[in-house]
């Protein structure tokens, strides 16, 4: 199987996706707990768990990017070693 994206793009996507998953998970947990110190007031947003649900959907999208780009990076590493079977 051949990689679809370049090695630099694959590794960049892996790193950015990992940070996005961490940061958005923290934000989602803060919104789901209706933390008043974080949201700024008691009325904004009106439905914190709904905001958290949409943030968790974004986390799932970034998890998909993480898996896809990780597979692409693995294919580049395998290709640079000479393929699945290397005769040296």
From TrEMBL:
Location relative to the cell: Membrane
Keyword DNA-binding listed: no
Annotated GO CC locations: membrane
Alphabetical list of InterPro entries matching this protein: Ribonucl_Kappa (IPR056552)
Segments crossing the lipid bilayer: 7-31, 51-71
Keywords: Membrane, Transmembrane, Transmembrane helix
The protein's name in its UniProt record: Genomic scaffold, ProqFM164S04
Organism per entry: Penicillium roqueforti (strain FM164)
